Amino acid sequence: MNSYYLLLVIALVSLGAYALGLHRARRLGQEQLKSLPEHYGALAALWAGLPALLLLLAWLVAEPIVLDRQLAANLPELSQLSSTEQQLELNRIKLKIDSGEADGDPVIEQAIELYRAHRKESRWIITALSLALALSALVFAGSRRIIRLHARRKVEGTIKLLLMASSGVAILTTLGIVLSVLFESLRFFHSVPLSEFMFGTVWSPQTALRADQVGSSGSFGAIPLFAGTLLISAIALLIAVPLGLMSAIYLSEYAGKRMRAFAKPALEVLAGIPTVVYGFFAALTVAPLVRDAGQSLGLNVSSESALAAGLVMGVMIIPFVSSLSDDVINAVPQAMRDGSLALGATRSETIRQVIIPAALPGIVGGVLLAASRAIGETMIVVMAAGLAANLTANPLEAVTTVTVQMVTLLTGDQEFDSPKTLAAFALGLMLFVTTLLLNIIALRTVRKYREHYE
Amino acid sequence: MNNTDIVRQSLKRRYRKERRFRAYGMIAVATGFLFLGFLLTDIVTKALPAFSLTELRLDIPMDRESLGLAEDAEISEDTLRALPYSQIIKKSLRSLFPDIRKRKQKKLLYKLISSGAEFDLRDRLVAHPEWIDGPPQSLWLTADDDVDTWYKLDTQVSRIKPLQAELIQALETQDRIRTAFNTHFFTRSDSREPEMAGIRGALAGSFWTLLVTFVITLPIGVAAALYLEEFAPQNRLTDFIEVNINNLAAVPSIVFGLLGLAIFINFFGMPRSAPLVGGLVLTLMTLPTIIISARAAIKSIPPSIKEAAYGLGASKMQVVFHHVLPLSMPGILTGSIIGMAQALGETAPLLMIGMVAFIVEIPEGVLDSATVLPVQIYLWSDSPERAFSALTAATILVLLGFLATMNALAIFLRKHFERRW
């Protein structure tokens, strides 16, 4: 049976179980029950639906993996090919299976037959098993035994378990990120030593067409990428920190209520614009502007200059800096302001000598969060920064970043085992670790600061 | 000189400083607005040309001989679809300019019309089979994008040859050229020809991807938030979950793409470029945001409501599902709409899982190959043709329009349904 229909049938059965449990409980009368009749219905429905559903899910995940293994095992010639070619061949055969097309090769033909037979078999098994599970629960719900149970506690216990499992998804996601990035990186560091990756200064990840080609292994020194990322992020922060901080100060200390009510959300619009839009703006408008401006000053500016990308990225993170600074400035107790003003300080003196020093840890935390945002930003640099890995500190030249290289390495034709694609995962690991550290430090400083004043 | 005099003397300087500081603040805020205004006007001006399209009026003879239809052939959809439309259009162009005889000149003439015009003509003929055997039809067909750019924008920078310019002017005097609203932009999918390209496929892709995201994120996000706010004991595990959620909210989106590629595609063997995988990746990405905002909404329910329910004998689960959840629903929905808006604008993780392919078919389910609006923007912005950059800007406007609507909806929900206690 098709898994959609199976899902529908399971849903219907558990609906039936609900009705049956409810009916059973109602017939007995409220006095003899331990829970409300609805709870018995819900318990029956859970029994009928949940195990069958879990089984179906597990099967949906496992079936393609098992079937692929069997298919590969039935094709002895396949083992002679490289893993990428194997994958391609398997995909080709699977397309044939789905379209029902015939293949000339009798061995493949036989394997396809077997695959179809196995698939049919497996569908029968899962249909039978899940229906048996659901129906046995239905039978149980119809029996008298159910009303002796403490249904509410059981139902609530199950629901609580489900809620808990949902919150566990966060842990699973982190685990998934760490494992996927770590394993592929380890495979990468197998072929390229960690020291070369961390300290090498040449990045040219092309893979060879022939084994004996010159420079066939490629060169994976990531220093130019780290330097490029830092350069662009530094430009972005140079723009975003003063502008964001001054906006926050003005809006929280000087601006009237109406100005604040209008300007704060309007500035946050900048954070809501998708990064791909900024990328388009940077590549097609700002970069030519910067280049023309440089030319009129007699400077030679690349059309993919770090300056243009950093500038636009800086605008993008203004709201991060300003809203985080705004929060911490507002958290400074009013008494400190009043004390300073009462001593005769002007407002700007109060801000500079009392409020900013008091809010500094929080502001630093905000800046660190903005920095982690800038380092991990992808679309602006993919569209506006270059691909060539230059090791330079000149903002007028083209540099490339970690995220740009990840995108270039993983889009387009790819074989998954080459160091080229695995390098993207190693870069991802670096990115993940760096941003994680920045975030942890930032959150710590902000939290400590809050405790200080609360 | 006593202290008061010193202070008095310095006052002028200090007030000047005060004014300067205040001005810096105003300049900072104004700069932010300036950038925003510049960005939006730039995109709107770039986008405007994409909403109109230049068309040429051609007289298409409808007798069977010119259409290449046999005398006794039956007029059915199949026969109509198989007609040599490209030849028909070329012939009609030649008939407008009988003077043009040389091969090279003819080629230039043919280039005036879009290479996609034949499909337009085919669709119209299929829709109007009664035209056949009738008088010649005068039809507006899409011009090539070079003609479009030349005619709409400027005659200086373009790839139009002098001969073609003369031909276009001749067409103009015959009233055979016009600009009309670009319906292709909304009804067609991606194409190599800018005048034939549209965002329908990307819109459908975005729809399927967001559908997957919404259907999975909302229940899991709400369940997790309910657990953490109402049930979770104060222990290490709960702390660990909270730390995880906070950190995930700040992980760069591209890393989620790596996760999707390594786990969903390579390990579970899900199809590349499918909205299902895109939706799953975006789910993992938006889940922390939604959990955090849902928790805030749940936290804002006053304890007196819960205590009243407990007082009437409700169980913990009944308090949560009968009172806390319904009351916090507007807040939760507001948060999820904002999360969905974020997911709609996300590009980088989708590049990783192969949603960047050139896809002409409109996806009809979560397993078809698809691309989404932001990725379409990325793809088109790379194209050298000038007309594509207008299309890109127009797509950005559509995307921003969706985002603005979603955010407006969220604000509306918050204003009208959220209760102040």
Your description of this structure?
The complex is a heterodimer of chains A (454) and B (421). By secondary structure, chain A is mainly α. Chain A has 2 domains: 3-149, no CATH class; 219-453, Orthogonal Bundle (MetI-like fold), CATH 1.10.3720. Chain A is 77% helix and 1% strand. Chain A has a two-stranded antiparallel sheet. In chain A, helix 8 crosses helix 10 and helix 9 (275-296) crosses helix 10. Chain A is flat, with a radius of gyration of 31 Å. The model of chain A has no long low-confidence stretch (mean pLDDT 84). Chain B is mainly alpha-helical and 421 residues long. Chain B has 3 domains: 3-48; 52-196, no CATH class; 201-417, MetI-like (MetI-like fold, Orthogonal Bundle), CATH 1.10.3720.10. Helix content of chain B is 66%, strand content 5%. Chain B contains 18 helices and 3 strands. Chain B starts with a helix and ends with a helix. The mean pLDDT of chain B is 87.
- Cα distance, first to last residue of chain B? 60 Å
Tell me which CATH architecture of the largest domain in chain A applies here. Orthogonal Bundle
Oligomeric status of the shown chains?
Answer: heterodimer
- Low-confidence runs of chain B (pLDDT<50, min 5 residues)? none
Which structural class should the secondary elements of chain A be placed in?
A: mainly alpha
Short description:
The complex is a heterodimer of chains A (454) and B (421). With 454 residues, chain A is mostly helical. Chain A contains 15 helices and two strands.
Key structural traits:
heterodimer; A: 454 residues; mainly alpha; MetI-like fold; two-stranded antiparallel sheet; 2 strands; flat; B: 421 residues; 18 helices; 66% helix
List the helices and strands and how they pair.
The complex is a heterodimer of chains A (about 450) and B (about 425).
Chain A: H1 3-28, H2 37-73, H3 83-99, H4 106-142, H5 151-191, H6 194-199, E1 203-204, E2 219-220, H7 223-254, H8 257-272, H9 275-296, H10 306-331, H11 334-342, H12 347-376, H13 379-384, H14 402-410, H15 419-453
Helix pairs in contact in A: 1-2, 1-4, 2-4, 2-5, 3-4, 5-15, 7-10, 7-12, 8-10, 9-10, 10-12, 11-12, 12-15, 14-15
Chain B: H1 3-47, E1 52-60, H2 64-67, H3 77-81, H4 85-96, H5 103-110, H6 117-127, E2 137-142, H7 145-152, H8 162-173, E3 177-181, H9 184-187, H10 200-231, H11 236-248, H12 253-267, H13 275-299, H14 303-311, H15 316-345, H16 348-352, H17 373-381, H18 386-417
Helix pairs in contact in B: 1-18, 10-13, 10-15, 10-17, 12-13, 13-15, 14-15, 15-18, 17-18
